[in-house]
Structures are given as C-alpha cells and as structure tokens.
Amino acid sequence: MSSEEIFEPKIVAFVCNWCTYAGADLTGTSRLKYATNVKIVRFPCTGRIDFLLLLKSFAQGADGIIVSGCHPNDCHYTSGNFHARRRWIAFRSILDMMGVDVRRVQYSWVSAAEGSKWADLVNNTVADIRALGPYTDYQKVADYLEKEVQDGEA
Amino acid sequence: MSKIGVFICHCGENISATVDVERVAREIGGMEGVAHAIDYKYMCSDPGQTFIKEAVKKYDLDGVVVGACSPRMHEPTFRRACAEAGLNPYLCEMANLREHCSWVHEKGEETTEKAIDLVKMLVEKVKKNNPLESIKVPVTKRALVIGGGIAGIQASLDIANTGHKVILIERDPSIGGHMSQLSETFPTLDCSQCILTPRMVEVAQHPNIKLYTYAELESLEGFIGNFTAKIRLKAKSVNYSTCTGCGACIQKCPVKKIPSEFNAGLGTRTAIYVPFPQAVPNKPVIDRVNCNYYKRGACKICEKTCQVGSIEWDKEDEIISEEVGAVVLATGFDVKGTDFFPEYGYGKYKDVLTGLQFERLASASGPTFGEIRRPSDGAIPKKIVFIACAGSRDPAKGIPYCSKICCMYTAKHAMLYQHKVHDGESTVFYMDIRAGGKNYEEFVRRAIEEDTVNYVRGRVARVYEKNGKLIVKGVDTLLGGEQVEIEADMVVLATAGVANCGSEQLAQKLHVSYDPYHFFAEAHPKLKPVETNTAGIFLAGACQAPKDIPETVGMASGAAVKVAALFSNNELVREPIIAVVNRLAPPLYSTCVGCFMCETACPYNAIEHEEIKARDGSLIRTIARVNSGLCQGCGTCVAFCRSKSIDIQGYTNEQVYAEVMSLLND
Asked: In angstroms, what CA-CA distances link B238 with B161, B203, B247, B559?
C-alpha cells in the first residue's frame, strides 16, 4: 500500500442502543477524535442483530465490521448480549469454515461510560482493516451466487 | 414515492464548525424521495421546530429526518413536533451528526461526507418506517427506595410527603448511613446526629413509609410504572413485634469483642446488638457469624435475659414481593481502608486512621466519647498529621477522580482537633484545596488562620514507626521541593471515597449502567443527573459519585420530584418499540411455523401461544404471539426467528437492511 494513497476502509458498526451507542455519544461529548471510516447502525440490543446482516454487508462491499454492545451482565435486557455472544461464537466458526476472513469482524463491548474505549476501538479497527487491505473475496462469491440465481431463473 | 423532509441543524457552531451543513442539505435534497431539505442554526429551538411543522403540512411529508444531536437527546422533541403537525411521530428519525460526527472528527471533506452518509442512512430507514401507536400502561404509585442513608431518608420523606407510598430498604440493622457516623459537619460544625436523627425518626413514623431494615434487594423485574421487587428480609433472630428494645440482652451477651462497624472498627460491639444508641429501629439483631449459639450451638444467654421471649433462633431469611412503580437508588459510598496504602503501613500502624475513624474519635457518641485519643495507647496526640488525597486523584492507585469531600472534612478534622487539644499541633498535607461551595472557602481559611492549622502543599511519600512515633516523610512543594519530616503521634488519611461494595451486582440486578469505578451512571451528565438510562430508576446521593451532604440532599429531593412527577400520571405512554408476529390472510394466517425459538430467547416471557382455529373449533395451527405489555423491545427473538416471522417495530429487518445498504451502496 505504501506507494499508493492511503486505503480508507468502509466499516459498519452494529451497536446496541444502551451501552455502545451511549458510549459513542460520550466519545462525542468528551470531544475525543477518531477516524471517519466507521458508521454506526443503531440496534436496540446486540441480541437483535441477525448475523446474516454481516454477510450481506460484506457482499455489499464492507471492508470491516464492528459489533459492540454491553459488557456481560450489564445488558439492559438482561441477556441479549449473551445471546449475541453465543451466536457470534457459532457464526465465527462457520465464517471461518466458509473461508470468510474473520479478522474483518471486531466483536467488542463498550459501556455507556467508556467513551475513550469507543474511540480506541474505532481507531484500532480502522488501522487493522487498513493493514488487511480491501475485502473483496466474499463480494465475488456473493456476486457469483447472485448471477447463478438469476441465470437459473432465466 | 416517499416525501421525506430533511432538516439539518448547525447546533450553533457545534455541527457547522466541522461539517459543511449547507452541502449536506443540498446533496440530501437531491436524493430520491426527499421532498424538502434545509439547514438551520438551531433545529430544536421554537422557530426550528416551526420549520418542521410547516414543512410537514406544506409538502405533505410522510417522513422526517433531523440531522442534529444524538437521538438520545432530542428524539422526543422532534417526534413531538411532528405529531403536532399531524405526522405520526414514529415517522421521524434522527441522524446523529453531533456526537457521532462533528464532535469526533476534524473539519474536512471526510467529515462532511460522513455526515451525508449518516443522513442518507436515516432517509433510507425512514422510507421503511411504519406509523405506530404508543402503548399505554398503568402506573403503580408506590416507590422503592434502596438505601437508608441521608439520601434515601430525604428521598423517602419527600416522596411520602407528596402522598405516595414508599418502601425503604436498608442493608444494615439501622437507617442513618454514613451521616450518622459523622461527628460534626462542615462548614457549620453542627452535630451530624442532631440534624439527622429527627429525620430518621420521621421516616420510622411516617404513615406513608414502610421501612425494612436488615433487608436487601433480591431482584427487580418489570419496567417503569410496573416493577416487581423481591426483597430479602435477612433473619434478625429477634421478633420486632414483641421486642421492647430494652437492651438487657445486649448487656448480657458474652461475645463482646466484635469490631463495631458503626465505630469504623475502633470500638467493639456484642453479637446481639443495636449499631448505635440512636438507631432506628432501636431493636437488636443477632450477628449469626459471631454468635456463640450459631457458632457452637450453646449459649442462649440473651434468650434467658429476654423478658418477653423475643429471640427467634430458627428464623430464616424471608423473601417478600412488592409492586412498585419507581425505584430510587441511594446506596451511598464507602471509603478505602488504611490497608490500601503500603506506603503508610498497610493498616498495620494502629495510629494511622481513616477520616471516618477520626470522625468516630471526634464524635461524642464514639468509643472515646469525643476525646481525641490514640487507639494504640489511649494517649492524647500532641502532633497530628492529616494526609489529604489518600488514594484520590492518583491514577497509580486506580482512583484518578477527586473524592470531593476530603478537602473539607480534613479542614474540619484539623479544626476539631485544635478545638479539643489546645496545645496540639496539626499539619495537613494537600495537593490542592478544593473548597467550592457556600461558605466552604471561608471555612478552610478559618482552619488555617484562626485555628492555626499548618497547611503544607505536597505529598507524603512514607509513614513509618520509630520509637513509638509515626515519622511522616513528605515534601513541601511551595518551599521548592524541600523534604519535610514530622514526628507525629497520629496520622489521619483522607482516604478516597469509592463505590459501595456490591454496587456492581446491584446495578446488574436493576439493569442500570455504572462507570469504571462502579458508581451508578446518570442518564446525562448535565441535564439528567438523577435519572438512569433505565426508565423509572433514579439516583440520589453518593452512589452516583462522591458528594457532600447538601448536594446529596438536593439530589435526593430531585429524584423524589421525578418520582412524584411520574406518579402524577394514571397511565404512562410507552414507545411501541416491541416485537410483533406477522399475520396474513387465510389460509396462511402467518409465516410463523410455531417453532417457538422466540420463546426460548425472550427474557420477559412475552411470547404466548396463539391457537388458530377453524369455524368448527378444530385447531389449524399454533403460532407465536407477543404480549405487548410484557415485551420490552430487545429484539432477541427477531434474530432467533428462522422464518423471519417476528419483527421488531422501529428496528424492522427492512429498516435495518435499508440502512446498511445505503451505507455501502454509493
């Protein structure tokens, strides 16, 4: 990457409303700076996140994904973050088996009081994904599958 | 096609300083489905809201996106404005251009582009929004106050005086908290117990307050207006309905050497005990850990002494259930012990005390009846050193924050010492003197000028014992870093105020947030200081952060007003952010296949079985149905659903999908 211009990865963050979204608000209130690459999609709880959305995001050109919610035991809804964690553990191994680069997904916990942790998480994820380069592998698979579906229908 | 109105706020300069707001409005204005896009200096102001209302009518908008601050701040404001203009409030969304964009990025092209992306994302979402109706729920007009210190006492009395019932629970055998332990209070030097005990009695006698001492919260379920609290009444081993509080059992109890919690370990108590003479209720409990009977199965002297037969050996913990509509958390704080300080002797030196222990020495109700005497030999210390900021403002100790009260109580301690020991010499080592508050600075000046307390600006590196004296080695930074060594008879550490033990577990039971130091987190640092992020749960006092008595009382009254305001409604309006199972026309009825994975996912038992029956009453299928009263809208069921039949309003699959696609397709 050295000779070319710096690669700006597209990163989507799926966060819960109660901890990480509020934590990111605190980052703002504290005026801590971080990279512009990450855009937040708000969910009520990480337990709400359908992990197929992660694959869809990769198919649409995301280079990296952050999933972040409340710390264990701190879930606003008691147990949503445990469901999400368990789902992620299962999903991660499936992704890995499929050949999807699991380093592209950063799974974290940021509480409503951890404004600086959110800034660090974003900056570190951007740096990591930047080092990994653009992610197109899954996009190719998805494009191929879509084409096959269309051909099949035709 | 949709007709979306987009309103971009400058927030004064908070957004416009780093985001080119005109460009955002211009580019969004060109988006498909956007009928109207403007920017304005203060969208939340009256004229700003009027712009929205007028546009809704003029352009017949079917969706509104406001690009401004966090929706956690002003979403209700803009939704209300839309509702007033006749648009369903749930067709209004906010793009967070301030907390998530302008405040966290430098001015530049990328920042404006990110702002555009964020607004686009919400425009795509709002296209998929459905009009929703708010849910009305009843309010149980009874409050639960957790913690019987001055915060809990004040909050309970204030709520009770508005005519509502209060349940006050206290972990210890008596209410009173830390305030009851204090000798005199700054900056007036009025006796703490003299001002507190009348309030304690008022609590006990108030017709609207039900007091449970020696009780802890077991669990809290439900939601604002409709909580169910399970309270563990710990076994007191004494029947309070017959006990007269005569105290004969306490005098006869043979186990006398238990360090007294009330006296911060300086005095002793018996196994059957009342924490202090003015306790409310003034009836004893048996400490089962130390009682001879519970330890060895023999003794029962108290039972023989008791004239009314109140001792209940086999009493067990009882768990009661109470319905409440609001909760006030007033669990207070704790102070670090001297054992936290290796440099000051790990708590090994008997004459190195905490501020709280000094309070007990100075208190007329304390172990020395108000005389300042060394715990080691009972001698009156002629030289005393106070170390402020013991632990506080020290990142190396993991306590980077200021404990706020120590500057003031250290000045008070030095003053009290000088008043009691006229020929004594007192020195205070301090980092800075923080005396913000009415008459606070004057109070510190009085200590320095009238009571000739020697203030040394610098830190103490070490305290060690030599020939029965405590050698305090410090530095005087105002004398150019000169080393100071004082031979003291007593050293008092103004140890850091920390979160009360068990506060993390309590926060988890209540689902309220807490900070890295385990103090409970307020909903907004400035504008919602007594609210938590969990609706219906409020904060009072030092459980939120260290604070002094006037502030605690003010906060407690603030929390009480919030509770009273909540109770002024007969029913509450709840956001309709709940899950729904789709229903279709026969013969499909629903895409739900009745696997009930959602039921296993739901933390609120909100999933019911709905039987679809034919006209002859025969069962066609059983599908899931959401009880809208119980559902809290976490959406865990949505991720579990295999046939995508259950969806959550406000965060539907379609909405979320549209958001993600808009972010990535450009």
From this structure: 31, 21, 12, 34
Q: Name A151's Cβ contacts closer than 8 Å, sequence gap at least 6.
A: none
- Asked whether the CA dihedral B305, B310, B315, B318 is positive or negative, the reply is negative
Asked if the Cβ–Cβ distance from B96 to A25 is below 8 Å, we say: yes
**ipTM value for the complex:** 0.93
pLDDT in tens, B105-145: 999 999 999 999 999 999 999 999 999 998 888 999 999 99
Of A24, A111, A113, which is closest to B99 when you measure between CB atoms? Answer: A24
Distance CA B159, CA B173 (A): 23
pLDDT digits (tens, 9 = 90+) for B506-519: 998 998 889 889 99
Q: pLDDT by residue (tens digit) across B233-247? A: 999 999 999 999 999
Beta carbons within 8 Å of B112's beta carbon, 6+ residues apart: B19, B20, B23, B24
Confidence (pLDDT) at A15: 96
| Chain A residues closer than 8 Å to B515 by CB | 113
Residues of A in contact with B65 (CB under 8 A): none
Spell out which residues of chain A touch residue B639, defining contact as CB-CB under 8 Å: 47-51, 83-84, 87
Q: Across the interface, which of A19, A28, A50 has its CB nearest the CB of B638?
A: A50
Taken in order of first residue, the domains within chain B and their CATH numbers are: 4-134 (3.40.50), 142-234+317-332+513-571 (3.50.50.60), 248-305 (no CATH), 335-498 (3.50.50.60), 579-648 (3.30.70.3270)
Q: What pTM did the predictor assign?
A: 0.82
Question: Which residue of chain A is at minimal alpha-carbon distance from B660?
Answer: A57
Q: Which residues pair with A67 in a beta bridge?
A: A14, A107
Q: How confident is the model at residue B666 (pLDDT cuts 50, 70, 90)?
A: low
Chain A closest-CA separation from residue B577 CA (Å): 9
**Across the interface, do B104 and A18 touch by the CB < 8 Å criterion?**
no
In chain A, what are the domains?
11-153 (3.40.50)
Taking an 8 Å cut-off on Cβ atoms, the answer to whether A44 and B648 are in contact is yes
8 Å CB contact of B636 and A28: no
**CB contact, 8 Å: A153 with chain B?**
no
Q: How far is B660 from chain A (nearest CA, A)?
A: 7
Q: Which two tokens stand for residue B265?
A: 């370990």
CA distance B225 to A82: 27
